[in-house]
Design a protein that fits this description.
The protein is an alpha/beta fold. It is built from ten helices and 13 strands. The radius of gyration is 18 Å and the shape is globular.
Amino acid sequence: MKKIVVVGSLNMDYVIEAPHMPVCGETLSGRSVTLVPGGKGANQAYAVGKLGGDVTMIGAVGRDSSGRALLNNLKCVDVNVSGVAQIDGGTTGQAFITVDDNGDNAIIIIAGTNGMVTKELIDEHIQIIRESAIVMMQLEIPYEVVEYVKKIAVKEGKTVIVDPAPAAADLPDDFWKGIDYIKPNKTELAILTGLPLETKEDLIQGARTMLKKGVGHVIVTLGGDGCMLVEEGTEAFFPSHKVKAVDTTAAGDSFTAAFALALSQGKSCKEAISLGQKVSSIAVTRKGAQTSIPTMAEVEM
């Protein structure tokens, strides 16, 4: 099994349960608020660790109670956190997540120390990248740092996986060159391409737009409708595992983590997608981000 490094965000999630998403001007009574370790980067690292992978996290937290809790939670599943800086005077990233009765969510992120991840921090831990076969990133840390890591990883011949969330419409085309896999959902792909994506053909066109920008493979997750893999000259659709969703928080992160883990084990892209779907289908039946992620034994039951 090859080593994986996750470069990205760590957040403390404030999960608010409510009957529906509030609309403009509405005051809504929620049922509960729970603090859950999260952040797309940390979720992915946690999931790889809990599933049995060899993973190291690079990022930043504050020297506060949330930062300590996030680090301890990663350590509990054997994630190497030697690359996570504890910043004096910084506030650990936060996410405020509303989950409705359908299990759908809406998220507001406060970057905090995630915005303090720098190229200098990457240079301090560049050996971790050099020793890893797979580099996973998201867009919850500064764009210029993601681009910097990508260039290092491509130069070193690593497999690069980017979960382009939160999606941004103004990323330069050069950013995508050399990235092996991206995993947007339908909304994120529409933002990245500026195209309306209403039909299957639209989705394929959107994915092919990203291929033209230099991405090797595009995996579009479609929630309960499954996902689509688009590569040069071909596309494939993978139906979802039908389950009752309770909370979709970290569903995409658990998919991406399981996908990366399978690749680290020498599995094919389609086999990796299959594992990603199994893991995410379990995660959505549970509440929270990292609290929802299963073990490999649970996946194989």
